[in-house]
Amino acid sequence: MTTVVRRARGATSGAGRLALALLSPTFVVLALVVGYPLVAALRESVFREGTDLDESGFIVEGSKFVGVDNYASIFAGEAASRFWNAFGNTTVFTVITVALEVLIGVGMALVMHHAIRWRGVVRASILVPWAVPTAVSALLWRWIFQADGVANSIIGQEILWTTEGWHAKLAVILADVWKTAPFVGLLVLAGLQIIPTDVYEAAKVDGASPWKQFWRITLPLVKPALLVAVLFRVLDALRMFDLPFVLIGNRKESVETLSMVAFDEASSLRFGPAAAYATVLFVYVVVVAFVFVRLLGADVIGEARERSRK
């Protein structure tokens, strides 16, 4: 009996060493492309570039260790108003665009799922905006929102969409929803296609209305795919940069996001504050992802974990 146990433990230990050896290249790559940039950003965020006087009164150039001064400046210093404005813009864009994309994306998925004739054409036409590069779609919407563009022609007014104000926010929200709602629709469509038709036939026999079928059958069964789509979109929206940057422009208070502030600081060679902004945004993204996974049940690795248990 003891010999059998020893052999079993030896086989398990051998399999573990083999798995570790096979996964080692992946760990090395992750350490280089994920771990090193994070550590470098954290280190840079506690330094500040520039000139200063040392104890002897001589001018000293280069990086200087400032501890948490860059973070203190962001939250309560001279840059606080700009940070909180960018934080508010980032949060507003994330909440509104993701909410609209979920509603429109679910509608798109239902249309694509129930389309009988020209199904391929319908699905391709709905997914085209998602395939367009973000910078290109921003240029397209910039043309639509210019003073003599299509948007003003439709509503019969002359609104300067690409300047400061609520209309700039609205332009960014419309452009982002147009581009990324098909992504949500695509993931929800994948969830719809695995729902057995027997469930709907049984509901029809019981006299369930189409709305009850959607509310009691479709929505609960498509919830895992929908939560994953929402999680991906929230994380992507929190990093929004290229769309408002190209559509509205840089240093526009109405649409400036945390990513744009970090880019602007880095472009001005203030790498320490830029790294501090990037670190704060990273923590914000991690907290939101943790809340989604733990509280709302967006289990993106559930199937893999179940397979490992078996």
Automatic annotation (TrEMBL):
Sequence intervals crossing the membrane: 20-39, 92-112, 124-144, 214-235, 274-297
Pfam families linked to this entry: BPD_transp_1 (PF00528)
Keywords, sorted A to Z: Cell membrane, Membrane, Sugar transport, Transmembrane, Transmembrane helix, Transport
CDD domains: TM_PBP2 (cd06261)
Domain of life: Bacteria
GO biological process: transmembrane transport
A GO CC term attached to the entry: plasma membrane
The ABC transmembrane type-1 domain, residue ranges: 87-292
Membrane topology field: Multi-pass membrane protein
Entry-linked Gene3D superfamilies: MetI-like (1.10.3720.10)
Cellular compartments annotated: Cell membrane
Similarity-based family: Belongs to the binding-protein-dependent transport system permease family.
Designated name of the protein: Multiple sugar transport system permease protein
Taxonomic source organism: Saccharothrix ecbatanensis
Organism placement in taxonomy: Bacteria, Bacillati, Actinomycetota, Actinomycetes, Pseudonocardiales
